[in-house]
Design goal:
This protein is α/β, with parallel strands linked by helices. The protein has 7 helices and 13 strands.
């Protein structure tokens, strides 16, 4: 087993321990989730699961996890998924497997979205490629409009689980929030692979034989507290009239 595989397994084990009996669980897609699924099944919990891709669904059923249609599940207690890139501020790039639209829907439905990665996925800043799912209808026109924001290449892979065409945005990322807004605003784009930090609860990073757990909820609370504190302190009051 390579170091990256060992780190994925360690991160998967930590995430599996966060799942409790009776939960509804979202299962992501990718090589790290491939470690998570059997570890979760080995715990023998009574779970209802939603899978983000046929590949994950097949793997989950094979190890005895109960899979339900997402259309029948309104809320998830927890979702666990991997990522292709993790920036220091919690922004993610996902979608190397072409399932990012489903992955984002499942993450948004979860009370707790846990991202599991090996240490190679940590980057100083997000970089291309950024996966983009596009409707096949009017594809050439959509790609032309999308290319106004930077170079785009259609990926030579099967379509998404819902029939979308998978492309990669290859231009600079810069401000991921601004880029996400621009790409999402192109008519014909279904979804992009930029995941904002407010969607993420925790990131579990495998580092060698151990794992580091970063709780983004604590960081967001600290930032909000700092802003509130600054607002309460405010600028110094002017001295009373007649006093220096």
């Amino acid at each position: 087993m390579t170091t990256a595989e060992q780190e994925k397994r360690v991160a998967a084990e930590v995430a599996a321990d966060l799942v409790e009996d009776g939960m509804t669980v979202g299962l992501g897609t990718g090589s790290t989730v491939a470690f998570f699924v059997p570890v979760l099944a080995a715990r023998g919990l009574d779970l209802r699961c939603v899978a983000t891709s046929p590949r994950t669904e097949a793997a989950a059923r094979e190890v005895g996890l109960r899979i339900e249609r997402f259309s029948t599940v309104a809320h998830l207690d927890i979702a666990v998924d991997g990522a292709d890139q993790v920036a220091p501020d919690g922004w993610l790039v996902k979608g190397g497997g072409g399932a990012h639209t489903r992955e984002k829907l499942v993450a948004a439905a979860a009370a707790r979205f846990v991202v599991i990665v090996d240490s190679t996925k940590l980057v100083p800043a997000l970089r291309p490629p950024v996966p983009v799912e596009v409707l096949p209808f009017g594809l050439a026109s959509t790609l032309r409009r999308l290319a106004a924001h930077g170079p785009v290449r259609r990926r030579d892979v099967p379509r998404s689980p819902d029939g979308g065409v998978i492309c990669d945005y290859l231009g600079p990322v810069g401000d991921p929030r601004a880029l996400a807004r621009k790409v999402r605003g192109v008519l014909g784009v279904v979804e992009h692979g930029l995941f904002p930090p407010e969607l993420v609860s925790e990131i579990v990073v495998g580092r060698g034989a151990s794992a580091e757990r970063l709780d983004l909820r604590d960081l967001r609370g600290a930032r909000r507290g700092e802003k509130r504190q600054n607002a309460l302190i405010g600028p110094p009051a002017p001295p009373p009239p007649g006093r220096p």
